[in-house]
């Protein structure tokens, strides 16, 4: 598993020369409604084992949660299931709000 910071992910998303990764938000729907990064795919952690077939095993996937703990667990799980390019965004959406988008609500 690879790690990426909020600012590194923002730079990746802004780089038109790089393919956009799948942004996998593993928080619960109520958390997502409070705040989320644009263009994420919501897949709550508890649903990943039954929904992982919705993901391309060869795609670059960045797992995101509130602070980075749940997303790290999901990233480990996906790698164990054969996913090749999985990243964990350290600090989660909280770090995104502090470092990238100060207009994003925090909780």
Automatic annotation (TrEMBL):
SMART domains: RHOD. It holds the Pfam family Rhodanese. Signal peptide: none annotated. Residues 17-105 form the Rhodanese domain. InterPro entries: GlpE_sulfurtransferase, Rhodanese-like_dom, Rhodanese-like_dom_sf. PROSITE patterns: RHODANESE_3. This is Sulfurtransferase. It comes from Undibacterium luofuense.
């Amino acid at each position: 598993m690879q790690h990426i910071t909020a600012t590194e992910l923002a730079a990746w998303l802004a780089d038109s020369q790089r393919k956009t990764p799948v942004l996998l938000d593993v928080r619960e729907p109520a958390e997502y409604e409070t705040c989320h990064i644009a263009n994420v795919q919501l897949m709550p952690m508890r649903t990943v084992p039954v929904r992982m077939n919705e993901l391309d095993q060869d795609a670059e996937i960045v797992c995101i949660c509130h602070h980075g703990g749940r997303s790290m667990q999901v990233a480990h799980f996906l790698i164990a299931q054969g996913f090749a390019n999985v990243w964990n965004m350290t600090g989660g959406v909280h770090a995104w709000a502090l470092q990238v988008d100060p207009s994003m609500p925090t909780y």
